[in-house]
Amino acid sequence: MLSETAQPQATATPQFRDAYDAASEEAKHAELWKTFLNSLPNKRMYHIDEIINNQTNFVAELRETEQMYLLPLSNPASRILEEDLRDNFLWSVFGPLPDLIEVATRLLEDLKGTQLAITATIESSFYEGQDGQDLLIGLADKFDVGRIFSKHLQNFGSFLFYSSSTEDMQALIRTELQRNPRFKAFHEEQLKAPKARSLTDSLTAILKRFSDYKVNLEKVLEKTADHNMDRIEMKEAIAAIARLATEMNENAKKLGDQRKLDYISSTLEPNASSLVLKLKDPKREHIYQTPVEFVTRKNRGQKIELHLLDNYLFMIIRIGSENPDDEVVNQDHLGGTPIIHPVSSVKKYMKAVFRKPIHIDNVRVSLIRPSNNRGGEIMGHGGTPTANDNLSFYIKDMANTETDVTGTSHVVYHLRGAVESIREAWQKKIDTQQKKRAAVSPLGLINLMPPVPHLSSITIASDRMLVADQHAVYMGMKESAFRFTHLMQNDALGLNDTEPITQIDVVEKYDLLIVLAGTTLYEFCLSAVLQRNKGKHHYNQRKIAKPVSFFKIGVCDDKLLICAVGDTGLRWQMKLFDPNPALMKASFFGMAAKMHLHKDIFIPTAVTSIDFLKLRVVIGTSRGFEMVHMTRVGADANSPLLDNLDPNLRRKGILGREDLKPCAMFRTRETNFLLCFQDEAFYVNKNGKLLLGLPEFNWRGLRPTKFVYFAPYIIAISDYIIDVFDSLSGDLVQSIVAENVKLLHVLVEKNVMYVSRDGGQPGVWMIQLKHSEVKKVTLENLSTMTSTRRRTVSASTENGPPQERRSGTPRRTSRVRSRSPSKRGDASLMNNAALNKPQAAANATPKLTKRGTRTKSAKRDILAPFQSLRHPLTTSSLHAIAFEKPPFTIKELRDAVPSDCFIHSTTKSLVYVVTDLAMAGGLFTLASLYIDQVFGDTAPLVSTALWAVYSVAQGVVCTGIWVLAHECGHGGFSASPLLNNIVGWILHSALLVPYFSWKISHSKHHKGCAHMDKDQVFVPRLRSDFPARMRDSHHSEIEEHGLKEEIEGDLFENAPIVDLYRLCRQQLFGWHAYILGNASGQRYFSWASHFHTTSPIFSQSQATEVVLSDIGVGLTLSLLAYFSYTYGFLTVFKLYVAPYLWVNHWLVMITFLQHTDVRVPHYRGDEWNFLRGALSTVDRDFGLLNLFFHHITDTHVAHHLFSSMPFYNAQRATQAISAKLGKYYLHDDSPIFLSLWRSYRACRFVEDEGNVLFYKR
């Protein structure tokens, strides 16, 4: 308490002596407070005083509203409200007003209590003769308004009610005033009181008071000194209020949008255009609407409503009539043709969507007459400008075209608003919404190269891209992310056929380049082509087949097949070739496999597509999809994919239609297939029956010809639009506008495709599925749409961490095991008794099957020798020891640490530097002068052993030097920033560390520790980062500690020898991979390196620091090169490189163990705060090495809490806070190498979804 704080001795001042002589106690304290405010040089306390006064007025207003309105209306004896409507009215209008009064009163009491404690301290100081400027400043700093607000913010949820019900509340009050005379008379009587406010104004003022909290706290924060610990609490309080305000605004907007959408939906005539809007979808947002009218020859003057949703722009016309004798004239929604309806068939005042909704990505708005990029004038509904041109604007639908005598053009709507501001508002709203959707769109685009004339095909071969135009093949070397430095043109391939090249592809396994030139299919030796050797004979060119219209490469029946399809004139022929390694033909420049004809199939109708299944090839023909079985012959080899007897397919009218053009088939699950036709797409099961309940697609009438499936998105490619549909919901989520789009190549395993396009930004583009989208969904999500019970059970944080699992993703289970309830993810089912369950399975005799072989459980005993090396807590539900939010604050932790622990001593820090450098210099001198000279010739084994000992010892000492430079980066070395940077730059540069670059990223690590989207080092991998075969193909369980742990992935992925290899690779090259390529760091969409000024890790203003870091590392490398040249590389390796590798090992090991453990949580969203992130670290005991590493290993929790605290005081700080932290203090005294192995084996990934995450295996 403030009154308990020891105060400095001072002399009383006349101002406080006058205040003491005040008449009453209350007036005395008020006068002391006023004098106290006037005596301070900083205006911080004036803003705090403003907060107290505002809160006082707020509480008074709330109590006045309660006394004037709530209490009289809730009194049954008053009979102001009807008895059956009273309770509903009181809750709908006043809501949790009594709770809000209690919350506001408690906040005011704490503020007033702190204010009274200050005046009481001043009063007692006067009696004891204590006063002075230092006393006043100290008292002002003790007013921790941030802590007070943080204490009460958890009860501010009452404000949410008023944000989401304001409009309903006002409407209910207006209705009651109109229908209830007694309520109206009561309300008018209350307004006669002095300074009385209406009921509506009284309740809406609550939100205004809430917004004042953030403004006033920001004023206090601005005037608060940097050393004041209340700054942290204040920032957290401001952030929490901002989050709550955002939630309130979102609730209000969501409710308002829902009202608008409900009204629109209730007045719209149901049809295909209105159904595509999905107005009842809770995710739908209504952005903007205005009345406008057409400015066209055809529809001039017709009034419409223009609406903008989050995903569509659409127009509404009225089709109802007020006069029942009139007929209703309606525009055909697709063609605009007038249609006469009898009045009886249409509701009055009903409305309809005019033509078709326009997807937001396809909208172009212009204030001037747009030109037609297809060569003609504006068609469709574009009209001539009128006199009121300053009111008109143009809406162009890029996905809709019209054709007349002038050609084909996009549909343009010429519209006019009532005022000039309407057209600017529409342009701004559409532009803002398009940018917002672009940020969350699933596909990202990268422009690889400018337009290539007559470009026909692209393929990837290792680190090269092969590009084909009509007459030659070119090679490009990719630099990074498929960006080209330049193209290197090959000579013509010597093709005999003069017809143009239309398609190329490579089979790197067999060193083959496949080229389709005209109607002839050729094979070439890939290695010879890549070496650009001139001459046809050097390429091993051979003809494969003729005639060929197109070819496709895939795997079927465990064979790599090249499927060539061609029209022979009378029928179509499909030839399946497999490269035969036994027939490899050698040349001087390489070897290429010779093609072997695997199967020859004749098809009576035109072939449009080829797809590969496990044992079948699916052929798209004009009669539908046909399947060819690779292992069967005769009549059983061919069968239709669709079931001709399925009544649902017959009802849909699919069977027997000759206008359906099959384009592609994709397997979405083990038993589900998505069939894509040019006009529509739908799902069937493995028996060819239509799957009901799954979405169907109509492609918006664009008739695409190419399709790509990147789970869970189906991408439809037409001539001028690339549409991206969510295959789970059927929604159009993205639409890319282009001209003359051509699909060049697809890399399904990488979710990447290459296209060429004209218009806008022409050229060759790489389109890839953004990483954030790839990791959110899998193919298995489709099962949720046909199952009624596929919901994830999340654990309560009071009993353990939530078991995050991707929503709706079912788990494949082993046939020989049963799942305990805990494996369903419900951590609350696990109790302490489970920990003491006897491990019976460990001593059980392996069970035998009827054939005498061991069961899977017995086979797992093979892993028994490795069980002791596994982490003692391997099931995520157990590691999360009730990790609720900490009940203490950082300020409370800091107060528990002795104040002298935060005082820097530059002399002491420099002594540590000199000591470490002396040890390193001594080891260097002894090794260089004695090892080779004494033992080099006589005892080479002894010499080698001594060099090994030297490298280990020097590595330990230099790791200590690394830690000292690390402290410089935090400001824990000295109070002087300049000295910190000089010492840190020199020491780190000597160890090949880019000091300033590392300092920037390491600062981000501390500010976002354990945050999945902000942390910078050892960010956990996600479940979806593992290949599907490792995620889902194999599951096994091992009995350990009385619980069954689920091991996910294939056996190779979990093999101990594989983990040992990967762990060694991490320890040897992990640091280099991090600073060079951001390995294990935060996920960025571009290359991130600590040496590059344009790396996404840094801002533009930090480029100079990056350059200085590069200079330091460059100087060290130059010196090493000089010494290598002078004394030989072997000498430099023994003296510097070998210890340097040990430094990297210790650095990676220390950092990995500090942040990787099954008990360490990671967070997303609002679950994270600085305190929880700082506590998500582990103190490890490295034994004697703690001393050489300056105790960065066993005091890391304290280091994350107080980063700038001098490192030599961290042990005392750890001892002081460990008791305060209790169960929130994570530490491990196990042998460090055993801990390293356990953590590496047990901590593999976290789930893709959830806000509190724990490592899983």
Give average pLDDT, whole number: 76
Q: What is the terminal separation in angstroms?
A: 48 Å
- How many β-strand runs? 43
Helical residues, percent: 25-40%
**What is the number of helical segments per DSSP (H or I, 4+ residues)?**
36
- Work out the strand percent: 15-25%
Multimeric status of the protein:
single chain
Using the alpha-carbon principal axes, give the shape.
flat
Structural class: alpha+beta
Unreliable stretches: 1-23, 321-348, 373-388, 479-492, 585-591, 772-882, 1028-1050
Give the C-alpha Rg: 37 Å
Main sheet record: 8 strands, antiparallel
Structure overview:
This protein has 1257 residues and is an alpha+beta fold. 38% of the residues lie in helices and 21% in strands. The protein is built from 36 helices and 43 strands. Strands 1, 2, 3, 6, 7, 8, 9 and 10 form an eight-stranded antiparallel β-sheet that branches. A four-stranded antiparallel β-sheet has the order 11-37-36-35. Strands 12-13-14-15 form a four-stranded antiparallel β-sheet, with no helix packed on it. Strand 20 (550-556) and strand 21 form a beta hairpin. It is flat, with a radius of gyration of 37 Å. The relative contact order is 0.05. Mean pLDDT is 76; it is low at 1-23, 321-348, 373-388, 479-492, 585-591, 772-882 and 1028-1050.
